[in-house]
Amino acid sequence: MKILIAAGIYPPDAGGPAVHAKAQFEGFRKLGMKTGLVTSSRYRHWPKGIRHSLYFLALLAEVPFYDVVYAHDALGSGIPALIAARIFGRKFMVRIGGDVVWERETEETDLSMKEWYEKGLHLHRLSFRMARWLMKHADLVVTTSPIMIELYTHYYGISNHKVKLLENPTPEVGDLVTKKGSTIIFASRLTKYKNLAFVLHILSEIFPNNPELRFVIMGNGPEENNLKKLTRELKIENNVVFAGVVSLEEVLHKTAECLFVIAPALTEFNPNYVLQGIALGKPFLISREHGLPFSVSEDFLFDPKDEDELKNKIQTLLEPSHYEKMVQEVGRLNHRSSWDDNLRMNKDFIMGLFNKKSQ
Fold it and tell me: Cα(first)–Cα(last) distance of the chain, in Å?
């Protein structure tokens, strides 16, 4: 079986899609499958339009030599990959870790994903129609959380049998030694919906009484300059570290030595860096509207629009007795899924596409 990975981003780019594209490109080979790779990020330095054309031409050159095209986002890399796959009569599947349609609209709104769809604001958006077209024409849609399955079956009208749930794996942390540090960790793309400005405002009230505390932001993105400007305006630049794009190994090392992890997006899906924290026994705080495929207690949750609630949750977590309680709760979380499990399930999905054809 020959699989062509069509990725929007790829390491050293930060983000879940990059991590999964690399894991599949390397991991499928260990399962006896041939893999190829085409990334649209390779052409990002070209002007819009030209870079899309170059990416599409690269796909056309590679697709004939593969049985399946596996895309890693719905629009940027997904639509050109679907068209190329159909031109050559190849199977097409797509992994979607978040909802790009809603994500693109957060420059104009402060609504969570559920709020935005419930108000019907998606109906007249071109990005929604394009994403729906892609999913309806895909042979299989793989997503990472139950809230995404609900979204795509309810609002997009995708058949239940076409959408598959595949949880993000718990990262392998090897022999990393953990310690209780004084840093709060964030590691993802710096976009508006990640809600980091909200966190910075709250931390500006917490830092004066906790001068040793640091907020380490790993990743880059369109909000980076705005966030740096905000830290200067709030006079907290000495407590906030913009680490930029870092390797997965460095993320794990920083997480092993952190105090806790925070995931403050208006809607969180199934963030890899939170799972990394869990694997290392670190407490975390995550938006109440989230897609983690396991239950967590109220102690871990907050409303991403309620400053008082998050401030109280952080201050409580800074208390040693409560912190130790949270560490124990993390140890009891029922989530143990390895990369090997993830790759084997992906392979089963791929083989199922051809088994259906032969039945």
Answer: 18
Domains of the chain: 2-169+338-358 (3.40.50.2000), 183-331 (3.40.50.2000)
CA distance 188 to 95: 18
Helix ranges, the chain (H): 16-30, 50-62, 78-87, 100-105, 113-118, 126-137, 146-154, 196-206, 224-233, 248-256, 272-279, 307-317, 320-331, 339-358
DSSP per-residue codes, 51-93: HHHHHHHHHHHHGGG-SEEEESSSSTTHHHHHHHHHHTT-EEE
Q: How many CB atoms lie within 10 A of CB 252?
A: 22
pTM of the model: 0.82
Burial of 229 (0-12, 13-18, 19+ CB in 10 A): exposed
Length of the chain as a residue count: 359
User: What whole-number distance in Å separates Cα of residue 235 and Cα of residue 184?
Assistant: 18
Among 219, 217, 222, 260, smallest CA distance to 240 is for 217
Distances (CA, A) of 229 to 217, 220, 234, 235: 14, 14, 9, 10
Helix axes 248-256 and 272-279, enclosed angle (nearest 10) = 50
Mean pLDDT in order along the chain per 10 residues (359 residues): 90 77 91 92 84 92 96 88 96 90 79 92 91 94 90 92 87 78 94 94 97 95 95 97 89 94 92 88 94 87 96 96 94 79 92 71
Q: Which residue has the tokens 């998606």?
A: 122
